[in-house]
Design a protein that fits this description.
With 178 residues, the chain is an alpha+beta fold. The chain is 25% helix and 28% strand. The strands form three sheets. It has a five-stranded antiparallel beta sheet with strand order 1-2-3-5-4, with helices on one face. The protein is globular, with a radius of gyration of 17 Å. It is found in: Cell projection; Cytoplasm, Cytoskeleton. It holds the Pfam family Pkinase. One of its GO terms (cellular component) is cytoskeleton. It comes from Parasteatoda tepidariorum.
């Protein structure tokens, strides 16, 4: 990825509420004025410090984004706000729902539990998502309940691909530092 070749978002996206904070980025719900739909925008402020995570996320989203277990990828933009450092924006599908970790906290607070059948169904979806990644030679390396969004319909999507490792690079060479 060549940062200087990335388009600017201009006024296409209207950032709305903050929906998540990660180790190197903030995630916002946003409105895509061009397409007329809601999207998620992951804003990375410290580009130089996070270049490895940026490249990892970019490779995953461009290779398998839009899969049933991965948010659809809409593009990467270089934003230069006035009087601030440049930002990298990953724009992707807005996933309705909550992280599985929030669901579990809510259930615990309400003194409720998932049934064995619900746990089995959730684990099956986790494993199908992992299988998709592994079939595409991607290792997530940060599998935890907060990195899965569960929709109101019970579907899940993996999020946060900054820690991923691609087993093979574009030349077909296997990475040794997994």
């Amino acid at each position: 990825m060549h940062l200087e070749e990335l388009p600017t978002p201009g006024s296409r996206f209207e950032l709305q509420e903050l929906i998540g904070v990660g180790t190197c980025a903030k995630i916002y719900a946003a409105f895509d004025k061009q397409k007329g739909n809601k999207v998620a925008v992951k804003v990375v402020d410290n580009i130089a410090e996070n270049i490895l995570e940026i490249e990892s996320e970019y490779r995953v989203l461009t290779s398998i984004g839009g899969n049933p277990y991965i948010p659809e990828f809409h593009g990467t933009y270089l934003h230069s706000p006035k009087n601030a450092k440049r930002q990298l924006w990953f724009v992707m599908e807005f996933c309705e729902g909550v992280p599985v970790s929030e669901l579990l906290c809510y259930l615990r607070k309400e003194e409720k539990m998932l049934t064995e059948e619900e746990i089995a169904a959730l684990l099956k979806l986790f494993l199908l998502g992992l299988q998709t990644l592994h079939e595409n030679e991607i290792i997530h390396r940060d599998v935890r309940a907060s990195n899965f969004i569960i929709s109101p319909e019970g579907d899940i999507k993996f999020i946060d691909f900054g820690s991923c490792a691609l087993v093979k690079d574009t030349d077909g060479k296997t990475h040794s530092s997994l």
